[in-house]
Amino acid sequence: MSDIDEKQKRIDEILVAIPTARDERELENLRIQAIGKKGANTELLSMLGSMSIEERKHYGPRFNANTANVTSAVSLRKGQLAEEAMNARLASERIDVTLPPRPEPRGTIHPVSQVLDEVTAIFADLGFAVAEGPDIEFDDYNFTKLNIPPDHPARQMHDTFYVARQADGSQHVLRTHTSPVQVRTMLKKKPPIRIVAPGRTYRVDSDATHSPMFHQYEGLVVDENISLGHLKWVLEEFYKAFFEVDSVELRARPSYFPFTEPSVEWDLRCDRSVQGQIKFGTGNDWLELAGSGMVHPRVLSMCGIDPKRYSGFAFGGGVDRLAMLKYGIPDIRPFFESDLRWLKHFGFAALDVPTLDGGLSR
Question: Which residue range(s) make up the domain with 157?
Answer without folding.
Answer: 111-346
